[in-house]
Amino acid sequence: MSTLRINEIFYSIQGESSRIGMPTVFVRLTGCPMRCTYCDTAYAFHEGQQQEIEEVIQEIKKFDTNYVTVTGGEPLAQKNCIDLMNQLCELGYQVSLETGGALDIKDVHAKVKIILDVKTPKSNEDKNNFWPNLANIRANDEIKFVIQDYEDFSWSIDIIEKYQLNQSQILFSPVHNVLANKQLAEWILKHQLNVRLQLQLHKILWGEKKGV
């Protein structure tokens, strides 16, 4: 049987992406090859239990929502993550994948909404961005830049221009409690960017803690 190492499965409000505000089941997988300076889920690096995919799906079915987010850690670090997402798509769930951008997304099911995190310089993981991923971004997918300061902001604009990214698919998110939300909003307006400002609604509602 196919198994995954699961850190946690929980039901909450989606705090990010264009599905913000929607009740969603989150499946957090254990493990990540990166160590971002601002990581808010370091507990998922090692903690977790092996579960059969069918067991994971049965837990998801307990909740009355069609939205499922597969996250981490880095979910694509476990090869059976693809199998889980394929089965969820076949069952009719609207699946989103939150990935750190270091691993190849080419095998992800076409029905999965990919939220691709492009690592900025202040993450200290920008050297591990797998740039060919940007060529595999589809119309339904979104690209996230987590921004700590103006250097990150300016760098992100350069990447958008270099790769001719569709600004309507771009999420700019300030590092929580480091860069003021208002400051990032003002920079976006000053540069007349058509990107989406993302404020992590779940942290506004409940603060930084597990299972929300």
From TrEMBL:
PROSITE patterns: RADICAL_SAM. Mg(2+) binds at T41. One of its GO terms (molecular function) is carbon-nitrogen lyase activity. Pfam families: Radical_SAM. Residues 19-208 form the Radical SAM core domain. GO terms for biological process: tRNA queuosine(34) biosynthetic process. Keywords: 4Fe-4S, Iron, Iron-sulfur, Lyase, Magnesium, Metal-binding, Queuosine biosynthesis, S-adenosyl-L-methionine. Its EC number is 4.3.99.3. CDD domains: Radical_SAM. [4Fe-4S] cluster binds at C32, C36, C39. Its cofactor is Mg(2+); [4Fe-4S] cluster; S-adenosyl-L-methionine. Homodimer. NCBIfam families: rSAM_QueE_gams (TIGR04349). This is 7-carboxy-7-deazaguanine synthase.
